Structure formats: C-alpha cells, structure tokens
Give the backbone structure.
Amino acid sequence: MIKRFIAAFHKASPHVKGESPWARAWRRFIRHRLAMAGLLFFGVLVILALLAPYVGRYPPNRIDLRNAFSPPTWEHWLGTDGVGRDVWSRVVYGGRVSIAVGVSAVSISVFIAIFLGSVSAYFGGWADLLIMRVIDIVMSIPPLVLIMALIAIVGPSLRNTILTIGFLGWPGMARLIRGQILALREQEFIMAARASGIPPYRIILRHLLPNAVAPLIVAGTLRMASAILMEAALSFLGIGVPPPTPSWGNMLQEAQTITVLESYPWLWVPPGIAIISCVLSINLIGDGLRDALDPRLIL
Amino acid sequence: MITYIARRILISIPVLLAITFVLFLLSELMPGDAVVAMMSPEAPVSRAALETLRSQLGLDQPWPVRYARWLWQLLHGHLGYSFITFEPVTRVIASRIPATLELMGISMLLSLILGVILGTISAVKQYSLTDFVLTVLGFAGQSIPVFFLGLALIYLFGLRLRWFPVSGSHTPGAPPSPIDHLSHLFLPLLSLSIMRIAVFMRHTRSSLLEVLHSDFLNVARAKGISERAVIIKHGLRNALIPIITIVGLNIPVIFAGAVIIESIFQWPGIGLLYVKAVQQRDHPMIMGLALMSAVVVLVSNLITDIAYAYADPRIRYD
C-alpha cells in the first residue's frame, strides 16, 4: 500500500496504441489518485464559493455586537469575530475572493505569456532579445517585493491585487511557450504553412500554440496556486484585499494579535486551513496533470 | 573558468542597469514627491513656494537628467532620504541587514543540511515506511503558507507551551545575552525553514534516486566499497549538482518569506522595514530596498551559475 501511495507521486500508466494524446492524458489523469482527490476537494471549495449566499447562512459583513467572539455553536458553526460577524460565512465568501483572484490573475498572466512568448519565439531577432531581457529583469526582483512596490503606487484594492499579481506572473510561462515554439518553428509543417502564404498570427494560433497547450495547462494550474498564496500573503500584510471584503488572507491579518491568537483560535484556524487545502488541492491537480500530459513519461 | 566568470559578470551589468531604470520609472509613477513629503500638513505652503523648492532640489529637470543624477548618487551609495523619518536610506538599510542576513543565512544552511540528510534517507530506503512518512510530511510542509505556519507556531510554542518569545530579537530592557537572542531567533527560523527543508528533501530524493542505479555506482559497488561510502562519496556528490540550482532559485523565495516572517515576529530586519515602507508609502525606502533585493537575486544567480560550472565542467564549454 505504501509503495503504491508513493509511486502515485511519480506514476505513469501504460501506453495504449491508437489512442489520441488527449484521451490518453485524460485516462492517466483520472487514474491519478492524488490528483483526483485534489480535484474533488477543489471542486467542493469552488461549489461552496459559488453557493456562498446559500451555504453561508449569514451575510459576511453582518455585525452583531452582542454576539462578539462567540465560540463555535449551532447558530455560528465556526463562531464569530470581534464584531460578531459569522466566521463560516466569511470563510465561504473569502473563498470566492481568493479563487476569483487566482483565476483572473492567472488568466491575465497566461494571456500576456502567450502573446510575448510566441512573438519572441516566432519572430526572433530584436523582439526576442528585448522580450527576453524584460523577462530577466522582472525575474530578478523577488515577486513579492515587486508586487508590493506596485501596490505602493496604485494603492491596495481587490482590482489592483488581481492586476499586479496577473501582470507580474507571466515571465516563467512566456519562457515555456517560447521554448516550445522554438523547438517547432523550423519543422516541415510550419515551413509548409509559411510557403502557402498563411499570415504569421494564424501560423502561431493554429499551428504552433496548440502544441504548447499541454505544458501551459500544467504551468497555469501551478501558477494559480501561487497566485492564491500571493493574494493571501498580500492581504495578510494589510496591502491586498482591503476589509471589510473578506479574504482568507485578511481574516488571518485581523487575527494577528496575541489575544486573538491565544483565546479565539476559531478566528484564524479556519481561514488558514482553507488556504492550505485550496493550495494543496490545486498543486495535486497540477502534479497529476503534469504526469498525465508529459509525453516524456511514456518514452 | 575565468573567462566564464567574466562573461557571466558582464551579462549581469546591463540587467542591473535596466533594473535601476525600471525602479526609477516606478518611483516616478508614485504619487507625491520629496517636496510634498517635507511639508507638514499643519502649515500650508503656497504653490509658488513649493515650485521654488522643487527647482532648488532639481525636481523640475527633465527625467533623463534626474535619472542620470539618481544613478550618479547611487554609484556613491546614496539612495536619498526617508519621507517619514528623514534618515538616509542607505544607513537605515545597512543597520537592518545583519538581522535579516542572520535569519536567512542560518535558515538556508539549516534547511540545506536537514533537507539533504532527510532526502538521502528517503531515497536509500525508497518505498519504506520512513520514506512514506517523509514524503507525506514533505508534501504537507511545502503546502503550508509561511504566514499561517508562523501564527500556528506562535500559538503552540509561544502562547500554549510558553517555551519561546514571539516578538523582536531580544527582551526589551534585559542585558543582551546570546541565549536570549537565540530563543528569539528560534520561532522565526523554524517558520522560515520548514518549507525549504521539504523542498530540498524532495529534490535530493529524486536526484539521488536517478543516480542510485547508474553504472558508475555499480562499478563502485563491484570494487567492494561499502554501500555507505558508495552513496555518500559517489552518489551524493553527483546528485547534489542539480541542488545547487535549487538553492539559487530559493534565495529570492526565502527573501520574500523573510518579509512576511519578519513582520509576524517583529524581527528587526529589512523585511519588516519594507512592509512598513510600503504601508507608509515611503518611496525612497521602497526603491532602495527593491533595488537591494534585485542585487541580492542577481548576485545569488551569479554565484549559483559559477558554482554550477565549477561542479559540472561541461557547463563551462558551452
């Protein structure tokens, strides 16, 4: 049992002939137990977040001073905070914010990465040199430090959190796409496409990018986990999603006093567990996707 | 080797220059300037007086001039003055560096040693119970965000068990003693190191597993060398080469971790300084610290590349 569990971290299933690559990847993915566990768990989190108004039971910002610091009870599943707001409701609504930040920030990053990565690889020369140097520069400043400097300019808000995380998350993925396209650019089918007069944007979109989709899906999934972590870290430092909008990070930030930490653990344990389980489940999905999509594993 | 090092250093100079330019642009975009920061809100000053002051300070010059002057000052180690405390940025940063260096350095060393040891055990005993426990712990360790870990450790060791202090780098008012200092260092160090230990452990495990069944190890075994010597002298030596890159990649991560950990534990290093500067929008301080972190990354990349080339001679002749 132990052997199989550990092997699940590095597993590849046998290659069946006559199967399309996507069908094969899907079959491998649904056999990947940890990835399926992650997918299941993340699915639950997404459903809870989507149904927040129904499963939250209380509005997340309803103040009830007579019920402040109530420990978990039947009325308040996870207790209440210092002004009597329901913690369960805030965790569920916070999930909305965290997942929304993750998804939208990664979408921005992926879009920029696709554009710059493919331009850089397809056209080469000056464009390539310029874009690669920009990547070097962005990657030379620790992301948290750079994002914090940008936040100092634009001010903390939900929108700015998404934009700064999204606009600084692309360099790694752009490099990935560039590498994939460079490897394909000189192959015969691309030359044939060029010779028949297809415009570059069409060659990139229809012939080159589809070949770079698999690693991009893996990178994007893992990127989303780090975007969610980044939002939590920023909100935790008080420069991410500003209160009263609940986010897992700013719930932890509000709990950052010795009194709360010591006497009211239901204020900081639930959002912390929410962050860990969300990030862990996305990472498990990403790992599973990598194992399922990486063709090197069947060689 | 020397040509390789020289070429590597030459490549990083334009990148560094470009970084200073990006940071200069960012500081241009930040609302407010030194003149606004100098004015107190109680005593209103006329617009004309503000303009006079701006031209005295050279702030009305076109931006290339200001950039060149800023760069010139930078070369002499001047980074301007804090908008909040009016102290020279360079001096404030310099006074905070030792605390962060202590935290980051010890954490890096500790996690490297523990990670390699645990990873080796895990790989040698592949698929055993020990390996299983370490793999699960490693996965958990990698998934806990550093700020939650910090809070949990404060709760457990600081508030419940009361073994360690949870704030600052020494007890205020008490005479300085190494024991007091170390007890303050313990919790931030642990929070910062757990994730790194897990990362190094996983990489050591997979890297060692790759070489463990290679021909040259079988040759060593065939010569009758003990399994212990085979693994440590021949296996680890080759397995650890990729770890050099992982260490380099982790320096910026550990720096970001230090920003968060220092603000949780009020550890008086540059991370805490940076969080305060961003919250107060202290632009010169933000720029100085961002530049410093970029230099740290560039230098650590440089050292990583050189160390890699030293360990793996094939790299040098590309």
Observations:
- Residues 87-123 of chain A form the longest helix (37 residues).
- Chain A has a mean pLDDT of 83.
- Chain A touches chain B through 46 residues (CB under 8 Å).
- The two ends of chain A are 26 Å apart (CA to CA).
